[in-house]
Amino acid sequence: MDSNLLEELKKIIKGDVAVDEETLAAHSHDASLFEVKPQVIVYPKDAEDVQALIKFVARNKRDHKTLSITGRSAGTDMGGGSINDSIIVDFMKYFTHIGEIKDNIATVEPGVYYRDFEKQTLLKDLIFASYPASRELCAIGGIVNNNSGGEKSLQYGKTEKFVKRTKVVLSDGKVYELTALKRHQLRDKMEKDTFEGRLYKEMYKLVSKNYDLLQKAKPKVNKNSAGYYLWNIWDKEKDIFDLNKVWVGAQGTLGMLLEADLELVPVHKHREMEIIFLHDLTHLGQIIDAVLPLKPESFESYDDNTLKLALRFFPEFAKKLGPVGLIQSGLAFAPAFMEMFIGKLPKLILQIDFTGNDPEELKQKIATLREKLKPLHPETKIAIEDQEKRYWLVRRESFNLLRNKIRDKHTAPFIDDFVINPHDIGEVLPQITDIVKKNPEFIYTVAGHIGDGNFHIIPLVDINNPAVRTAIPEISDEVYKIISKYKGSITGEHNDGLIRTPYLEGMYGKEIIELFEETKKIFDPLALFNPRKKVHGDLNYAMSHIRTNWDTIKVPK
After folding, report:
1. Are 276 and 370 in contact (CB under 8 A)?
2. Which of 146, 177, 277, 488 is least surrounded by Cβ atoms within 10 Å, i.e. has the fewest?
């Protein structure tokens, strides 16, 4: 950054401004396969700092066209959504306040780790239902801005359902609150001759004029984090207009989040888990049909490659449990070690979790499910408490293991979050894995929320191999064509970032992409916020910024 600009920036920020190489390097990557070095890291101390920063960028944008702002919380984004080559705004130092939990609503700032937030909610026997699998690593800012989902989303839905209010700073540098508006409240907003008034007028015009087109464009799957959710803004049936519906999941491309009101749900007292081992996918559709009507809280899956990796790197996998936990986990995994030794690991493990406050009702659900499955003769078992931990350990922690260096291989998430109709899984999943198999450089695992048809394929690769770099866009092209053919979504939870934004037109078509671009322009006319995400994606830029060094860079805490 120009030295005069930097000095001006330091004068207007009460928080911290860092340009040292170690801090820049630490913020040059997230959990994606990309590395983009920023010019400055700003740690805003309060809302006034965020406002001053946005006004600073707006004031200097004409003379410095590449100047921009990207918000960042814990940096666990898997698509490159929290990295940028200009200014990174790190909320993890000062925006760490959890407000009072009133009834079932909690007010929380973006720099709060989810793990700390959950400790507070559990004191009131409440939980935020759409936490992701990275629950021990991620923060609230990323959850809201990515519209995160996870193991409980099958029953409860995604983050968009639970955000009731946001406090934000928009491109004019002023603080606003976004909430659901009734007709007369919307009319009052639109009558203002201000930036806010024009924002509401133009967004209402865009949504109402293109209402039918947008409803048709809405993906016909349970989960979606691709593009801007314009079809959700105006609920005609309830006559509610809510800009939070486009803000949540926008990846910080529309402004900066200061705090959010999140709805919580009661924690269920009892649970029963049924495990199904599949040695082929022949009856998968019938099994799904048997499970979903019983309304499990979660319906998860992972493949034999995931289990093999967990077993192969068992010490690294289980050491976080401590010495006692390591021994207990070793005993729990003993049968799986034997199955791997004799070559009889199942191709897919299905994990069905029923929860509630009536234990007899849960036992009845298990009995009903087993009765329905009898004609299919699957291998099943009820997991007792210690076994539940074993299965959840594999499902939740496998990526945390994979994202760290394993010998000479590294995680390369790029087709890591597609969604299809659950009934198409048996047909679609083999097509996609066959594409990856054609590239022997890729070792991969498959895990996902099978009840939603949401799968995560995480390859392990030598990212410095030129064949790997060439194959990444080629595999993406083939996979996303299949997803589009089956009317699915290219991302259900992880969002677009650098890696998927270039593929949005293939999913939605040019007409919808133009509406996305218009939305960005309405909110952010000077293009201040998080470039190359959601709109104007650049695949060449992304591929030229693939990370090469995993050894010397540490994730900032």
Report:
1. no
2. 177
Per residue in 330-371, pLDDT (tens digit) is 545 555 545 544 456 888 889 999 999 999 999 999 999 999
Burial class (CB in 10 A: 0-12, 13-18, 19+), 292: middle
Instruction: Give dist(CA 112, CA 119) in Å, integer.
Output: 12
Query: How far is the CA of 48 from the CAs of 52, 54, 170, in angstroms?
Result: 6, 10, 13
Residue closest to 56 by CA, chosen among 114, 129, 6, 115: 6
- The Cα–Cα gap between 433 and 451 comes to 19
- Whether the per-residue pLDDT at 383 is higher than 90: the answer is no
DSSP secondary structure letters along 133-183:
TTTTT-BHHHHHHHT---TTHHHH--GGGTEEEEEEE-TTS-EEEE--EEH
Model pTM score: 0.91
CA nearest neighbour of 430 among 261, 278, 214: 278
Instruction: Determine the Cα–Cα distance for residues 149 and 419; give it in Å rounded to an integer.
Output: 12
The count of other CB atoms within 10 Å of the CB of residue 126 is 20
Written as six digits, the tokens of 26 are: 């630490």
Closest CA to 447 of 401, 484, 485, 487: 401
